[in-house]
Amino acid sequence: MTELTGKRALITGISGQDGWYLTELLQQKGYEVHGILPSRAPGIGEAGPQLYYGDLADGTTLDSVFDQAQPDEVYNLAAQSHVRLSFDLPIYTADVTGVGALRVLEATRKFQDRAGKQVKFYQASSSEMFGKVVETPQSETTPFHPRSPYACAKVYAFWQTVNYRESYGMFAVNGILFNHESPRRGEAFVTRKITKAAARIKLGLQKSLQLGNLEARRDWGFAGDYVDAMWRMLQHDEPDDFVVATGETYSVRDCLDAAFTHLDLDWQKFVQTDTSLYRPAEVDLLRGDATKARENLGWEPKVSFARLIRMMVDHDLDLARRELRLQDMDLPE
Ligand code: GDD
Predict the structure, then answer these.
(1) Model confidence pLDDT, tens digit, residues 159-185
(2) Any ligand 1 atom below 6 A from CB of 179
(3) Model-wide pTM > 0.85
C-alpha cells in the first residue's frame, strides 16, 4: 500500500541492481523518485522515475540536477563497483567511486544551503573495506584493511561522509553493506555468473564455466532486503553508520553446489578454474555482524542464501528458455 510521504529522493546509480529495488521501495512509500544514470539502461525506465544523464567522473551537472530534483534524501549508489576490474582501472575507480562520492556530498551540502532545508545523505559503503579482516564477524568497530583499488576508494568515501557529518552537522550516513544479490545482479559478479551458467548448461546453451578462486567466502544476502536497511538509516533519529549483513558465510564452491544441485547437475563436470580470473590480492572471508542495525533500525534479512540462489537460478532458467525459443524460431534475415 502506498503511504503518501510527499518526499523526494535522488538516487545516483539508479540503473544498477540496488537503484532499481530502492526506486520500487520508495515509490511504494509515496516518494517522488529522481535518478542519475550514466547511459540508457534497460529496466529502470519501466519503474517511472525522473531520469537525468550524468557521470560522477564529471560533477559539473550535479548542481542543476539537484535544483530540478529538489531532494529530501540523496542515495549515492553510483560507483565503478567491480573489484577485479578496479585493478585494471585504478585511477578511474578512485575518481568515480571515491572522489565521485565527495562530488555528491559537496553538491548535497550546497543544495541544502540553497534550499534552506535538511537533506539527508546515504553513502553506499562496502564490506570490501574490511578486506584482510582483523576479526570475524566484522562490525562497525572493526578496523578497515582494504585490498583493492575499489576498496581503497570506498574507504575514502566512507571517511568523507563521516567528515561531512562532523564538520557541517549534515545527516550523512554510511551503510556498510555486505554482498547482496538478486536476479537483477550484474552478470560479472560471481553469484549471477554461476546461476546464469547453470541455467544455460541445463538447457544445452553452454558447455562449461570458467571461474577464479572457489575458496573465497562471502556473506551473501538479498538486495531487496538491503535497500530497506538504506531507507531505515535515513529515517533514524541520529545519523550513524551501520553494517548490513546476514551473519552467515558461504564459499564460491557452496554457491556452485546450491545452484547446480537445484537443477540436478554436478558442477564438477562443468567448472574449470582460470587463474586470469584471480585477483592480485583476495578478500578471503567476510561475515558481518548486523546487531546494531537489528537493534536500532529494527532491520533483519528475510531471504536465506539457499532461497536467494534458487530464486536467481529460476529466473535465469526462464531467460535461458527464452533464449532457446528465439534460437529455435526460424526468423527471416
Ligand atoms: N566476479 C567474479 N568472477 N568473482 C569470482 C569469480 C569470477 O569468475 N571466480 C571466483 N570469484 C570470487 C572472487 O574472487 C571473490 O572472492 C568472490 O568470488 C565474490 O566476487 P564478486 O561477486 O565479484 O563480489 P565481491 O565480493 O568482489 O564484491 C561485491 O561485493 C561487495 C560487498 O562486499 C561487489 O558488489 C562490490 O561492489 C561490493 O562492494
Answers:
(1) 999 999 999 999 999 999 999 999 999
(2) yes
(3) yes
